């Protein structure tokens, strides 16, 4: 088990399987099918993200460097949460941008039945270490535990 310390953006504890992107997440392109066309699995629709395209994001520990794209990013994340099509958590190696942070914080405050812990500033080592389907445990205080990659 390897531990990483990050900064809490939205609190919570959760266990989930990792889904890793080494590229930025275009929130609108990635969640468009989930928000407009009823895809409850939130299958990534961003053809420019080879790591995530066509993969289910709902219920996964989404591990990524940053979000990219338009000013709709925060609203997209809020809507994904309100429709219960959000990742189990979002784990950023870099600092989260203000728009994505706003959407996740508003979801945390306004939606009493939805939790999506968000931790940022986990560092480049985190993103190099974690692989798809590794077990992730998000703990209080911004601690993220990742299973030993030799046990995958």
Characterize this entry briefly:
The chain is an alpha/beta fold.
How would you sum up this structure, described in words?
An eight-stranded mixed beta sheet has the order 1-10-9-3-5-7-8-2. The protein has four helices and ten strands. Helix 2 runs parallel beside helix 3 (98-110). The termini are close together. It is an alpha/beta fold. The chain has helices at residues 27-36, 73-82, 98-110, 124-129, and strands at residues 2-5, 7-10, 14-20, 25-26, 61-64, 67-68, 89-92, 118-120, 135-139, 143-146. It is globular. The chain has a single domain, classed as Glucose Oxidase, domain 1 (3-Layer(bba) Sandwich). The mean pLDDT is 95. Strand 9 (135-139) and strand 10 (143-146) form a beta hairpin.
Tally of domains: 1
N-to-C span = 11 Å
Q: What is the average of the pLDDT values? A: 95
DSSP summary: helix tally:
4
Give the arrangement of secondary structure elements.
Elements: E1 2-5, E2 7-10, E3 14-20, E4 25-26, H1 27-36, E5 61-64, E6 67-68, H2 73-82, E7 89-92, H3 98-110, E8 118-120, H4 124-129, E9 135-139, E10 143-146
Parallel strand pairs: 3-5, 4-6, 5-7, 7-8
Antiparallel strand pairs: 1-10, 2-8, 3-9, 9-10
Which key features would you list for this structure?
152 residues, 4 helices, Glucose Oxidase, domain 1, eight-stranded mixed β-sheet, globular
């Amino acid at each position: 088990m390897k531990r990483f310390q990050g900064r809490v953006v939205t609190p919570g504890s959760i266990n989930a399987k990792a889904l890793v992107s080494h590229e930025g997440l275009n929130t609108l392109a990635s969640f468009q099918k989930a928000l407009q066309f009823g895809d409850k699995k939130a299958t990534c629709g961003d053809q420019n993200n080879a790591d995530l395209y066509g993969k289910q994001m709902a219920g996964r520990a989404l591990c990524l460097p940053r979000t990219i794209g338009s000013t709709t990013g925060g609203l997209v994340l809020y809507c994904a949460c309100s429709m219960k099509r959000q990742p189990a958590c979002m784990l950023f190696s870099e600092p989260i941008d203000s728009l994505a942070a706003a959407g996740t914080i508003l979801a945390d405050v306004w939606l009493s039945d939805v939790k999506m812990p968000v931790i940022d500033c986990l560092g480049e080592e985190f993103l190099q270490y974690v692989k798809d389907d590794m077990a992730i445990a998000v703990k209080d205080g911004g601690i993220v535990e990742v299973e030993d990659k030799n046990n995958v």
